[in-house]
Automatic annotation (TrEMBL):
Keyword check for Oxidoreductase: no
Record's function text: Flagellin is the subunit protein which polymerizes to form the filaments of bacterial flagella.
Native organism: Vallitalea longa
InterPro entries attached to this UniProt entry: Flagellin (IPR001492), Flagellin_C (IPR046358), Flagellin_C_sub2 (IPR042187), Flagellin_N (IPR001029)
Domain Flagellin N-terminal: 3-139
Annotated family: Belongs to the bacterial flagellin family.
Sequence ranges assigned to domain Flagellin C-terminal in this UniProt record: 312-396
Keyword Transit peptide set for record: no
Organism lineage: Bacteria, Bacillati, Bacillota, Clostridia, Lachnospirales
Principal location class: secreted
Subcellular location: Secreted; Bacterial flagellum
Protein name as annotated: Flagellin
Coiled coil stretches, renumbered: 73-127
A Gene Ontology molecular function term of the record: structural molecule activity
Domain of life: Bacteria
Length: 397
C-alpha cells in the first residue's frame, strides 16, 4: 500500500470533473433551448444555421417591404377613387348641360361647378403622397424589394392623374391665323434649293396648306419659302418655324456645317419677316404661324354642342383612371400573394434552422439526469477513495 499518491482518489476526481462539465453543458442547453450556443458545440452546424438565419430575417423584412408597398398602393388608389367620383360628377353635369331645357344662365352655373371639380382633380394629383413622395404627379417610379437577396425587385410607375393629363383641363389659344403642316422630302444629292409652299389665311376656318416636293443639294445653300395668302378678314402677321425630321437632318447639316443656310422670303409683304429653324432629332417638319393670347380652358358645358362633346372627353378620362386603378389593384394582389409566399418560405426555413440549432429538451434532460447521477456517484466514491489510505493506520497499531 502507498499513501503518497492515492490513485483511486485521483481517478475519481478526474471523472467527477468530466461529469461536472457535462452537467454544466446540459444546464446551459436546457436553459437557453439551443443545442449550439458557441462554435465549439458544432462548428459546421453553426455556419449552416447562421446562413439560414440570415435568409429568414431577410424574408421577414421582404414581407414587411411588400406590406409597405401595399400601403403605398392603397394610398394612391384611394385618391384615384375620389378622382373617379369627381369625373363621374363632371360627366353627369355635361349630360345635364347637353339638354336644351337649360338656358345660358343655367349652363353658366353648371360650368362653375365643373371648373371647381377640375381644379380639385389637379389638387388631388399634386398633393397625394406617401412618406413625402408624390404619387400622382407622373414622377413616381418605385421599386419594391420583395426578396431576401440582391435584385429581387418589382417596379411600379404611376401615370400623372391631374386634370390636364386626363384631358379635362388645358390651354386654349386664340390665334390670328392657323395653318397646318406640310410633308417635305429632302435628299442630299439632287436639286438646288429647298422650296416650301403653303397657304395662310387670317380666317381660321379657311386656312389651308399645300405641299410640294422639295430637294436640297450638297452645294445648294439657299432655302426658299414661298407664301401665298388667301382672302381673309383678319390681319396676317407672324413667323414660320420648322423642325427637321430624320430624313432631312443629314442634308441640312451638310449644308449648314459647310456654308450656312440662307433664308429668303418671296411674295410675303403682307406677312412680314419669316424664318425657318432646324433642329436635330426624329421630329416632323411642321410649319405653324404664330398665335396670340391664351387662357385656361377645360371642360366646356356653356353650350349644347360643347357639353355633348365633353361627355366623350370625360368618358375617356374615366377610362384612364379606371385603367390606372386596375393596374394598382393588380399590383396589390400580386404583393399580397408575394407576402403569403414569403411568410411560408420564412416559416419552412425557420423550421430547418431550428432542427439544426435548437435542442431536443427531452433528450437533453435525459443526458442531464445521467450526468447529475454520475456526478453524485463520483462525489461519493471520492469520499470513499479518500478514506482508503487510513487503512495503513491499522498496520501501525
Amino acid at each position: 500500500m502507498i499513501i503518497n499518491h492515492n490513485m483511486m482518489a485521483m481517478n475519481t476526481h478526474r471523472q467527477l470533473g468530466i461529469n461536472s462539465a457535462n452537467g454544466q453543458k446540459s444546464i446551459e442547453k436546457l436553459s437557453s433551448g439551443m443545442r449550439i450556443n458557441r462554435a465549439g458545440d458544432d462548428a459546421a452546424g453553426l455556419a449552416i444555421s447562421e446562413k439560414m438565419r440570415a435568409q429568414v430575417r431577410g424574408l421577414n423584412q421582404a414581407s414587411r417591404n411588400a406590406q409597405d408597398g401595399i400601403s403605398l398602393i392603397q394610398t394612391a388608389e384611394g385618391a384615384l377613387q375620389e378622382s373617379q367620383s369627381i369625373l363621374q360628377r363632371m360627366r353627369e353635369l355635361a349630360v345635364q348641360s347637353s339638354n336644351d331645357t337649360n338656358v345660358s344662365v343655367d349652363r353658366s352655373e353648371i360650368q362653375k361647378e365643373v371648373d371647381q371639380l377640375s381644379q380639385e382633380l389637379t389638387r388631388i394629383s399634386d398633393t397625394t403622397e406617401f412618406n413625402t413622395q408624390k404619387l400622382l404627379d407622373g414622377d413616381f417610379q418605385g421599386k419594391f424589394h420583395i426578396g431576401a437577396n440582391e435584385g429581387q425587385n418589382v417596379s411600379l410607375s404611376i401615370n400623372e392623374m391631374g386634370a390636364e393629363a386626363l384631358g379635362v383641363q388645358g390651354k386654349a389659344y386664340e390665334a390670328q391665323e392657323v395653318v397646318g403642316a406640310t410633308n417635305i422630302e429632302v435628299t442630299s444629292n439632287t436639286g438646288n434649293a429647298l422650296t416650301i409652299e403653303f397657304v395662310s389665311s387670317s380666317d381660321v376656318n379657311n386656312a389651308a396648306v399645300t405641299s410640294t416636293e422639295a430637294k436640297l443639294s450638297d452645294d445648294g445653300s439657299t432655302i426658299t419659302i414661298t407664301m401665298e395668302q388667301e382672302a381673309g378678314d383678319g390681319t396676317t402677321a407672324g413667323s414660320v418655324t420648322g423642325t427637321t425630321e430624320a430624313k432631312i437632318k443629314a442634308a441640312l447639316d451638310a449644308v449648314a456645317d459647310e456654308a450656312g443656310i440662307t433664308v429668303a422670303v418671296k411674295d410675303s409683304a403682307a406677312l412680314g419677316t419669316s424664318n425657318i429653324t432646324t433642329a436635330p432629332g426624329n421630329t416632323v417638319l411642321a410649319l405653324n404661324e404664330d398665335v396670340e393670347g391664351s387662357k385656361d380652358k377645360g371642360i366646356n358645358v356653356s353650350s349644347q354642342p360643347a357639353a355633348s362633346s365633353s361627355i366623350t372627353t370625360l368618358q375617356s378620362a374615366i377610362e384612364k383612371v379606371s385603367g390606372e386603378r386596375s393596374k394598382l389593384g393588380a399590383m396589390q394582389n400580386r404583393l399580397e400573394h408575394t407576402i403569403k409566399n414569403l411568410d411560408t418560405s420564412a416559416e419552412n426555413l425557420q423550421a430547418s434552422e431550428a432542427r439544426v440549432r435548437d435542442v431536443d429538451m427531452a433528450k437533453e434532460m435525459m443526458t442531464f439526469t445521467k450526468n447529475n447521477i454520475l456526478q453524485q456517484a463520483a462525489q461519493s466514491m471520492l469520499a470513499q477513495a479518500n478514506q482508503a489510505p487510513q487503512g495503513v493506520l491499522q498496520l501501525l497499531r
